[in-house]
Amino acid sequence: MAAVVDVPTVQADLDLGEVAVRLLGEELEGRAAYTESYPTQMGLGLGIISQPVMSPEGDLTLFPTEEAQSGADASVGRIGLAVSLSCPPGGDHGLLVVGNCLDPEQVVPLAGVVAVIGGNSTFVDDVPDTDETESET
After folding, report:
1. Percentage, residues of the chain above pLDDT 90
2. Among 50, 18, 19, which residue's Cα sits nearest to residue 34?
């Protein structure tokens, strides 16, 4: 799934991807999740990999603790989750790409696909005039 999302507008000399990775890294410390910043065609990229856990009661934990992840019994369902956010250095709008897989062990290859989609995408601001479109047909 992919969607254009609003991201904060920041100073050009501030690396929004690095800030997000540091903030998420602190927030996700002790959790079974991996974050990384990387360059994209738009400029900045942020990736997150996790193996969410669903309890038998239906409670979903997107970023489970490492203890919960390693101690999960057979009655707990797990999936793979990969997220990529790509945006221009100044912010404004970004492309959010989310993928999930039923086999949690396939999350790393899934993250590669999500990162390629998010990393190679760009926004095109040029909208053809209706006169140009009509003359080409």
Report:
1. 28
2. 50
